User: What shape does this take?
Amino acid sequence: MAKRQEAAKAKKTAVSPKKPTNVKGKPKTTVKAAPPKAKPAVAKKPAPPKKAVVAKKAVATKKAVVAKKPAKPAKSTARAAVPPKKAKAAAPAPKKKPAPAPKKAVAPAKPVKKVAPADLKKKKSAVVVPAKALKKQPPVKGKTPPPVKKAAAVVPKKPATPKKAAVKPAAKQTVKPPVKAEKTPPKAAKTATPPVKTAAPPPKAPAAKPKETAPAPAPARKEKMVPPIPVSFLVELAQNIKEAVEESARAVKGREVVSHAESGDVTFQLDKIAEKALLTFLKRAGKPVAYYSEDAGYSTFTSEKPKHLLVVDPIDGSRAAKSGFEGCVVAVASTRVIERPTMADVDNAVVLELLGDRCFQAERGKGVKITAGNQPRRPKLSANTELRTMIWSMTVPGRPAELVFPTVARLIDHSSLEGGFFACNSTAYSLTRLLTNQLDACVDIANRYHRDIPDKVQRLFENAGQGKVIGIAPYDLAAALLVAQEAGCVVTDAYGKSFDGVLLLDSSAGNHLSLVAAANKGLHAKLMEFLGRRIEMLENRFQALPTS
Assistant: This one.
């Protein structure tokens, strides 16, 4: 009976070596077959499968395995003579193998724990190789249940790693990555966080703040963004005033003094006719405009909020007009309705001759246009830079002759023969003569004395102005200044400063102006040098005198 039992066992062992040899080429199939027949019986020979595992790692062919001990049982399984040899081998085997079993069982247990559970869950079809499966499992049975649970916990973590790092091939590295895979995800999380931090900078709220601050000044600029009133409207206005005044001026009528203007100047009957023509035209036009004039000051006459402001001197050179001389013009400048407008805010300007046919039109930044009747004319600026041959004019009305003539006396003597000197009554008329090559320069220096030594010269100014200080008011200069600048003339005050910051609607004595204008820079520089030296000399003389 014992021989029969051994023979039956020999047959079983004879079948088992053939199938594991087939599995040795594919290490995964040996492990896959392990779970199904883990219960039936426990084999006593744990050693041969362990050597087979070593053989799997060393050599991938069947012949290498046959060369070792498993080859002998393979031949013995073919016939019955082998069982006694196995019985003999079986007896010493349990004696020698129980000691090394725990040592070598630890090494195969790790690959079995990490490789087998993944394959067991994927495929459970193979139910072959009972011998090796039975031999591998008994030493692991005491330890496998806990690692199987751990393997189940590791498996869901493995698929999470390929999602974050899909480039890494996890097929061959399944043995080592489980430990690295758990470490790599935190690295991926760390690498993921900096891009989030880099993405965080886009919420640069300061970029949105200038958008909030920009609209704050915008409301003040909205009024400035209103397009300028057309120059054609200013021309039409000036022509209406001319038509109302020209007949009286040519007939030398309207000389009667009727009042005094805000600036202190005298208002003649001719000026009243011009003011009436101005108001009539604006009412008929029906445009949302306000206007500032010599006699009326600031006025509005429409229910609608005005968008444009007209600065009008209906007759600049009233004394020439009431006497029938040509040195008189209609001057109109326009700007937008803004708070405290200055000379730099003037957009368009028109100067129209009352007793002539010339019209000077200017748009800021677009140059000047001159027409004589219906014929266009080009500006002609003098190239003369010599004081000896200079043709020039000086504004005299209301200015203390005791100051202004001593200042320019030598200049008059020096230029009166080869050049020419004219005493004019209209600043706008004198400035526009620079564009027609009729004058090389024009000056009005009285106001500098009133600014420099007011306590010494106040009495002189009041005597000349019949109790008031007379000078160039902004409305006298606004239109002609833009025309001269757009033509290329050099226009400053007697200090050599620009008029850009001068308030446009202030006609008080404190805002009166001086003037030095020339057709070119060379002549302007020589004039400033001469006048500056003479004014300083006379001021020193007045400073030495006792205050009156």
